[in-house]
Amino acid sequence: MTDTARVQTSAHLRTVERWASSRAWTRAGAVAQVLAAGTPRRVVALTSRVVLLAAGLVLVAVAVAAMLWNQLGPGPLDVLIGAVRVRTGLPLAVALWATIAVLLAAAWLLGRRPGPGSVIGPIVLGPAMQLALSRFQLIDVPSSITFRVAIQVIAIAVVGIGAGAMIASGLGAGSGELLAAAASDRSGHPEPRMRLAFEATWVILGIALGGPIGIGTVLVAILIGPAVAHGHRLVESTVAGAQRQLRRTPSVMWTVRSQ
Asked: Which phi and psi (to 5°) does residue 142 adopt?
């Protein structure tokens, strides 16, 4: 082999080696970039879900406290919890936890497994609701029945948004939503209809056991199902819009960098 041929062969081998090395580094870099980007994305996703759950719990706690302060009658499930408290002599928090535990167990038996939010929710709701109620009680209850009915309807709508945020978080819906969804899966009937059936059941059981009732109870029983369905759609569409915006942001940044 001539000196010229040796030089050409050596140059060719070095070129191949550089190409292979660059390809290997490119692939390794791509994998590392995916892994590095994947971790923040997972952290952001989990953080967003926790924020949704926390926001939903706060909204529900404030809205339920507003209903109690409004004195038009508690929600159907609260009627049942109040009756359980009166019959058993248990503290309010214990009566609430016991009742919700039974509902979650029923939903699980029907095929809807409770998430961590379903379990954590009642623990957080009690203190948050008590705190919100103590603030509301610093204000006199309106004397106008029309104004109080309006407050009740607004509070129901806020509960719907809060419950929708809990569902959208994917960390576990509330006991009422979970049980209605499980019953809907089994029966094929829409969730709002199943929710109304359960709310009517809580009212009947609560009255039979001596629980309190009022016009606000009837309003909650009728409106809570549609409120939760609407709240869920609203939160889902808002979250989907935010996700689309975030997906567009990296492409915009890449375009700016490459110019």
From this structure: -60, 145
Residue 28 lies in a domain: no
> What residues make up the domain containing 78?
46-258
CA distance 53 to 182: 20
CB atoms within 10 A of CB 157: 17
For residue 177, CA distances in Å to 3, 81, 112, 216 come to 83, 17, 10, 20
In a domain, 17, yes or no: no
Q: Which residue has the tokens 């409004």?
A: 70
CA dihedral 208, 209, 214, 219 (to 10 degrees): -70
- pTM, to two decimals: 0.69
Residue position matching structure tokens 């109304």: 196
> pLDDT of 31-41, one tens digit each?
434 444 455 66
- Kindly state whether residue 119 falls inside one of the protein's structural domains: yes
pLDDT exceeds 70 at position 17: no
